[in-house]
Protein 1
Amino acid sequence: MKPNQQSPAPSEVSRRQFHRQLGGTLGALSGFHFFPALADKKLEKPTVAGIGIGGKGASDLAGAKNAGFEIVAHVDVFDTKRFSSDDRRVRRIAESRNNDSHASFFTDYREMLIEMGDKVDAVTVSTPDHHHYHASAMAMKAGKHVYCQKPLTHGIWEARSLKEIAAATGVKTQMGNQAHAKDHMRRCVELLRAGIIGPIKEIHAWTNRPIWPQGFSSPPTAQKVPDGIDWDQWIGPAPWVDYSPQIAPFAWRGWWNYGTGALGDMACHIMDMGYWAMQSLTNQPLAPSQVSARQQGATDFSPPINSIISWDFAPTRYSSRDGFTFHWYDGYINAKFDRNSWQLKKESDEYNHPDDDVLEGMSFQDFGSVMIGEEGKLFFNRSNKNWVLKSKNSKDSFASVDQSIPRAREEDSYKEWIDAISGVVNESESNFAQAGPLTETILLGVLAQRCPNQKLLWNHDEMIIKDRPELSRWIKREYRDGWSS
């Protein structure tokens, strides 16, 4: 038993015994025998299981259903038939179950994958970050198509592995950075690659988050696990912490062990366009050579309250001769963690953002990005189709640039995913081959937050920080007993 872990009640013992047996069966799902027939078949109305059905999980299920999936199973550690709460995320779990009351319910996705078998064609993964890898890997190895929320994984090794498993199994995959499906993002990528602002020198991206608690130095007071919450399954492969409503269902984002902070939560959205635009059209992934971070408020338990991160990249087809640097900014500058309320308290609304010489008087919103080239700048916000160009080149002069990126049906990521599954398109654009390297880059920034004011030299091929072997534990971490890699 882990330190401070509560002993299971007698009624739980048989379930634990089942899980020990399950672990043996799921050598199945770690060394797995892939079922190509399931992934290769063309499906007119594929079935989907939602792994995590509250909060973002509820909207992922709604998006999948609207795209044409049939929902046949729900998985969530909060069993709302036994546990009730005023928290809107828990209420959304109940709503998901009520909306598709015929769907089977599980608290453990491992059980679901075994018991449902080929009744499930695909899964959405909308769990806390620390379950993304295991749920997605097990599903793909069982021949299921996967739509996984951002960030794709909690750790760097996990992101690399999901990319490899997707390639080996041939299933259709999609990361949940929904704006990737928007026409205006795809058009900006095409124009930047065509040289509308010349070779790229710098990219800046920012967010005002975190809006959840970060910067605490010890766990909240432990509480008894309410009936209807499978807390052991919530912890899953990660290090143990005793239950508290100040951890789940929402504040887990501010824990190193379970979430990836503001950077992991938002950068897969906000850095996406810039990263995509700089990728060459070869199979060579876009990887930085080094990364460094400045931050305030990080502890052994929690990511920083605010940070500024820089990644340096070698020259690419679309960069300046010396390469380019990607800068990230997050968090309120004068915020502090208040333990009594378990919240961040802001003294002002000022948050980290680029300097005035980058913004050039442009009003900035809670999030956005600026691409800086040798011949101008492009200001982009994924929620606004009216992107701004400041360049000696006009939009009209680039009107003839060909469309090189396929457009998603109705600019909808769920419809693009189902179209890939049904064979209408070859792949959805934010598939794991693309989302994996983006996530790796972002998670290198998360690693840099844990080593502030240091230049970390990244060896992409060997997946190591040069001359820093002690950091390997944060590239690939050990999992809790019963959860293999």
Protein 2
Amino acid sequence: MNPVHIIIAAVVAAALTLVIIKLFDRLRRKDAETEAKAILAKADQDAATRMKEAELEVKEKAIEQKAKAEEGFSKIREEFRDHERVLDKRQIALEQQGDDLRKQEKIVESTQRRLTEKLEDTQRRNEELAKLLDMQRQVLHESSGLNREEAEKQLLEMLDRELTEETGSLILKHQKRVKETCDEQAREVLIMTMQRYAATLTSESTTSSVDIPNDEMKGRIIGREGRNIRAFEKATGVDVIIDDTPGVVIVSGFDPVRREIARQALNKLIADGRIHPSRIEEIVEGTKKEIEQFIQQKGEEAAQEVDVRGLNPRVIHMLGRMHFRTSYSQNVLRHSVEVAFLSGMMAEMVGYDVALARRCGLLHDIGKAADHEMEGGHPKVGADLLKRHGENETVVHAALGHHDQIVSERPYTVLVAAADACSASRPGARRETNAWKNWKQLPSAFPACSGRSPFKPAVNCA
């Protein structure tokens, strides 16, 4: 092969190589463009997807904000409605007061008119009466032949005789009126004394306080729309008072046992933290069983302490209930145990049955455990309770007559009454009050009440 052919072949090969390279470059460029287009398309698609997601998220947030705003608006509207209702009630009350005032004004006007008419009529009648008296005086002077001085003298003598005869009846009448006034004043003294002392005593004997860790717990105790507090009050039979006092919830009720059950159950619920109606019922039932066991235990311990045997289980249970009852800050169960020991010691000194005296003393106030459930005072309630459960007549009579409300015909009743007074009046047993300290300073005009407690007046005390 000659060099020309070689050169031509090399040129052709170079040309072919160049063409092939350009073809490859063009193909790579097309592939790159295709890939770029695919990437751009994918990017556009991703961007569109993200835009849609962003729009959906924005719409959801807008819906949530709208719902929150509507909820706030609904609360504001409800508050406005409440204010409107309060204002409407006040307006109605003001209108009613205005009507009442107008009616009272009319009544006053009519009353004044009637009084004016009566005054005019009275004045007219007085004038007529004066004329009649003058006429009668002239007729008397003419018929009797006496002058004015002689007629006045005879008239005064006649009046003196009549007044002398009526003096006794007038004195008796005034004495009766004075006695009625004294009795009324005595009642006012007693009522005022009891009223001034009753507020603190009632508050202390009918409420219990429960400490809470924070004020947020008040909302949990109330529950949604008050369902928790309603369930608690229904299960325990007490009232729960939640006010602005920080760190305290008040349990109120006249039954001390129910109040103690409610107090312990509420403490357990606060400690547990799960407060809802079913949990409330569960805790209250458990607490009731614990309190019933505690009451039975206290009754048995009291009976064993004073060595009184053979008591009816119901009587033992009522004894245990007295652990939750106080009388002027004195625990009634401990008071009954004291009275039992004192009665036993006095009975031993005078030669009576010590066991029977202790039995009478222990059970003398048993009516206080059930006097809120039955009609009558605690002596009558206790006597009926003991008689119904098989106690003998001596024990029943001691419970009925230990406050001198009946004639004490049995010596054990007198012993119990004396022991009851000793236990109640020993220093530190009961709260001292100004009314008690000043009781003996009352006027001697009220002998029926002299020396008696203003909080335990005699039956016939005026």
